[in-house]
Design a protein that fits this description.
The chain is α+β, with helices and mostly antiparallel strands. The protein is built from 2 helices and 6 strands, in the order βββαβαββ.
Length: 127
């Protein structure tokens, strides 16, 4: 989410879109649920570095929309190669709050060149 839109005010009754471009919005909020996609800001990093970046970026967006990791509802994870699942699981287990686990799916997908991971996130927003 762009820096100018930090700490957005949530309106529960309408669809809110932030950081719109010609093809997508950075974050969409509707009925108290925020949804967005994260890819690594630095595609030159290795798979471990990209996964760590994405998890950090999720933290930043959660804060901007008024949520936290305990508010995560679902994370869909796309890996360029499922053999990297052990790296993902190691970093995930350190990051995700124990006892507050979201729904999670992880699949292999052909991602844009240089990218190893993409995550689709939904989280509850405290209005």
């Amino acid at each position: 989410m762009p820096q100018a839109e930090a700490n957005v005010k949530v309106v529960m009754s309408k669809i809110q879109r932030f950081g719109e471009s010609a093809r997508w919005s950075e974050v969409v909020i509707y009925r108290g649920e925020a949804r967005w996609v994260e890819v690594a800001d630095d595609a030159t990093a290795d798979v471990r570095g990209q996964i760590a970046q994405v998890l950090t970026q999720i933290n930043v967006t959660l804060d901007r929309v008024g949520s936290s990791r305990t508010g995560l509802i679902q994370v869909l994870i796309f890996l360029a190669d499922l053999k990297d699942g052990s790296i993902l699981n190691e970093l995930w287990d350190e990051w995700v709050p124990t006892g507050q686990l979201p729904i999670r799916a992880c699949v292999e997908a052909k991602l844009a060149p240089g990218y190893f991971v993409e995550m689709v996130i939904s989280a509850a927003v405290i209005g």
